[in-house]
Amino acid sequence: MFRKVSTLLIASLLSFGANAQPKGKREPLVTQEQGSFLVGGTTLTEPGKFEVANALKPQGQTLHGDHAYAFYQIPVKAHKYPLVFLHGAGESKKTWESTPDGREGFQTIFLRRGYGVYLLDQPRRGEAGKSTVATTITPTPDEQFWFTQFRIGNYPDYFPGSQFPKDTAALEQFFRQMTPNTGAFDANIVSNACSKLFDRIGDGILITHSQGGGIGWFTAIKNPKVKAVIAYEPFSSFVFPAGELPKPIQSASLFGELKGVEIPLSDFEKLTRIPIIIYYGDNIADQPTTVWNKDHWRAGLEMAKIWAATINKHGGHAKVVHLPDLGIKGNTHFPFSDLNNLQIADLLSDFLRENNLNK
Amino acid sequence: MFRKVSTLLIASLLSFGANAQPKGKREPLVTQEQGSFLVGGTTLTEPGKFEVANALKPQGQTLHGDHAYAFYQIPVKAHKYPLVFLHGAGESKKTWESTPDGREGFQTIFLRRGYGVYLLDQPRRGEAGKSTVATTITPTPDEQFWFTQFRIGNYPDYFPGSQFPKDTAALEQFFRQMTPNTGAFDANIVSNACSKLFDRIGDGILITHSQGGGIGWFTAIKNPKVKAVIAYEPFSSFVFPAGELPKPIQSASLFGELKGVEIPLSDFEKLTRIPIIIYYGDNIADQPTTVWNKDHWRAGLEMAKIWAATINKHGGHAKVVHLPDLGIKGNTHFPFSDLNNLQIADLLSDFLRENNLNK
């Protein structure tokens, strides 16, 4: 899979258009700095005093857990605001790295476009596996469910024109990249760690996927250093001011009806002060259907539109983009790693530019 | 934390001495390619037929697990052999990234020195969390034990002259970077996945830490694409030909006596065909003592010397380096992230050059 390249032409890098989609070899990446750290979390301390002679006893010992993990890369001459990427349920930061068929993911695409990029593993997932609560992990054959839930198709059939690569190796990578919780998902713990990340790095832009969507809203409420939120296919945890909850949306979703979450108006208003954009892909029903995956996402898309309208009614700047409305067809639940992910990246670049976030 | 740099001079990168230890800002990293993938593993399939209408039932569904995860970066004009890094017990690929106090780890140091770098999460750890076996994870306060076991000192005291950074933030990072198994450790599964990685990437050099040491021997036995092994502080799983097992080494280690592992001579001989080097740090007893951490590693170092002598008796090329013998003092169980890790990296660079592995 590796391309042998022996030339190094920085000049060509600098002339590399943001929207170019080169086939074959890529120009070198030029990075000022990269690294990783743990951020946020809590500490348990067992009462008593630690004694080296009794080091296998817990007395006086600590457990640090519930932090997030971040891997970051900062390009030379970076834009002012870095991009912080948070994965969805069952995923890790891998979501944003190489696509299942080995193309560049948003991590590298946006590094090329001059943004500092932070990829998070949320608390109790991936490299941030150390949890303060116990859990049991049971291997469960469920990948055909996820294939269908994530709108690659209705297993074993791909949706016609699906933007998911059709080779079996790519599908195997997709299945293997899921990784379990090492402790129960806790939106408060995850958003606390995300907020601590922004305390550490300063102003930036938060990009979420799926279950991460709710974390995006909570983090932006907790921390004004979040200067914009981009959400790919959020589903749960749409937050509304007290007294303005819409009625639950019924659907054929296997997850049941979709409810909003009530929060104080003063918190909700914090979300009206930043630009927010939400993207949904294709094969979402436009009216109720018994096809449960298409109907699940119909409910999500409908709730997202109600939510954005509520944000905007309160003076905010939220927008919902249903990609087929732009003529962009075939996207799954993972538009940022689909075959047309450079086109999806271009939309994000446009959003950042239009909101003067690409300084 | 980020340094602003506005100049980009590839010439200065190319003239950047391998052993330079610049203070302050670093030259930009120039990378030809980066990405990630899952490799190896197995697949469970539940009998029956998957039906979209019964998608929450396991029938006909699969679970892909027990793979490794790899994040790779290939510099421009890379040396012929990439370096593959495997972490130890309780750790992830984070081990090789930023040090606990935020300096560059071996990932970035060796990328700067022109090597392709692959960091692995072994099966059932980190981003490779999907396991084919169930497990229960119980939060256990044990960090003061690990501080001591890993020879940072005898908690709460640092060893005099310890190369571990003394600030509390670094120690917190160190504690948080440990991450649990999501399934039982299985040396055969881990070495199978490592071997599959070499099948994918071709010839390369394997660098292991601690528990990963045994995986290094098993991987090199399984796959002739492993052209050298560098092991930092291996402990268990020293392999000997049938009939040549040394007697177990008694010590005050909390893990009990240290035994070798018997393997067929034909497998052992595969380890005599490649250069192998083993490094141990400081504060290891030179004779039996009741100080259990110093004595644990005395047993490891003694066994390593017996092992290397056995390799060499069979015509191999193994060497054990006890860093204090070179006048390098204060190293913990993690020499590659200690304060003097550039000096430790220089030793590795020397080894690669001396063995013509830096082509």
From TrEMBL, chains A, B:
Signal peptide residue numbers: 1-20
GO molecular function: hydrolase activity
Alphabetically ordered keywords of this record: Hydrolase, Signal
Domain AB hydrolase-1 span(s) in chain numbering: 83-252
Keyword Hydrolase among UniProt keywords: yes
Record-linked InterPro entries: AB_hydrolase_1, AB_hydrolase_fold, Carboxylesterase_BioH
Keyword Nucleotide-binding: no
A Pfam family per the record: Abhydrolase_6
Entries under SUPFAM superfamilies matching the protein: alpha/beta-Hydrolases
Entry-linked PANTHER family: AB HYDROLASE-1 DOMAIN-CONTAINING PROTEIN, HYDROLASE ALPHA/BETA FOLD FAMILY
Protein name: Alpha/beta fold hydrolase
Organism: Spirosoma arboris
